[in-house]
Fold this sequence. Notes:
It is an enzyme of class 2 (transferase). This is 3-methyl-2-oxobutanoate hydroxymethyltransferase. Its cofactor is Mg(2+). Belongs to the PanB family. This protein has one domain: Phosphoenolpyruvate-binding domains (TIM Barrel, Alpha-Beta Barrel). The chain is globular, with a radius of gyration of 20 Å. The protein is 38% helix and 13% strand. By secondary structure, it is of the alpha/beta class.
Amino acid sequence: MTSAELPAPYGGGAAAPSTPGTAGGSKRPGRVRIHHLQQAKDQGARFAMLTAYDQYAAQVFDEAGIEVLLVGDSAANNVLGHATTLPITLDEMILFSRAVSRATTRALVVADLPFGSYEVSPQQAVESSVRLLKEGLVHAVKMEGGADYADTVRALVRAGIPVMAHIGFTPQSEHALGGYRVQGRGDASRRIVDDAVALADAGAFCVLMEMVPAETADAVDAAVRVPTVGIGAGAGTTGQVLVWQDMAGLRGGRQATFVKQYADLRTVLSDAARAYADEVRAGTFPGPEHTF
C-alpha cells in the first residue's frame, strides 16, 4: 500500500479537493492526526516526514502532501549556524514551531524537545512540552532517549501530550556516544528493541530510529504496535524522515549515506543570486517594468 492510500481524511500525495466556495465545492482533507499514522501502520501504508523551520518551506511541504512536519532541533545546525543541535534553546524552538504551525493546514506538526528542556525530571519535560503546544502551536513533541525515559513519556501522555520517541543515534548525546556512529549493531540490537518496546508501552505514539541497521529497525517495527519512522534505518519502517535542506540539496558538503538528494537548490539559488547581482551592476535592474 502506498502513501496515496493512507486513511481518510488525508490522501498522502493525492491532489487536494477544493475548499468550499471554490471550483468543485468540496472540502479539503482535514488535519493528519496521530490515529491516522496508526492506521497507516495497521494497514501497511507509509507516510512521509520532513523537517521544516519557516513558513514558506512548511507551506510548500504541506501543499505537497507531506503527512508529518518535524520542527527539529536540527534548526541549530541547519538554520542558526551551530555545529551541533545542542545549543538551541526552548524559546528558539517555540519561535520556529509557531512559524511552521501557522503556515500549515493539513500536516501533523511535531517539535523536538531541545537538549536541557526535559532531562532533569518528568515535570520539567511536561512544562517544556506544554509551552511547545501552547506557544508553539504544535500537535506533538519528539523526545530523544531510551527506556530510561519511559516514566517521562508516561508523565507527558498523562498530561495529554502526544510523544514521538527517538532512539538509536540520538544527536543530543553525540558526545556520550562518541560522535555520529551507527547504533544497534550486533548484540546492541537487543537494547534498541527493548528501548522501543519500553517507550511504546509507556504511551509513545510513534518510534523514530536514527542510524540503526535495517535488520534492527525491522526487529523494532515487528516488536511494537505503533508506527515507526526511519532516518538511516532502512526501508522497513512505516515512515521516513529527512532534513529538508539535505533532501532538496540546499546544504553543501558531504552528505550522510542515508540522504537522497531530490533537487539542487544550492545551485538554483546561487545562479539566481549571481544573475541578480549582474543585472544590478549592469544597471538593467530595476527596469521600467519594475519602476513606479
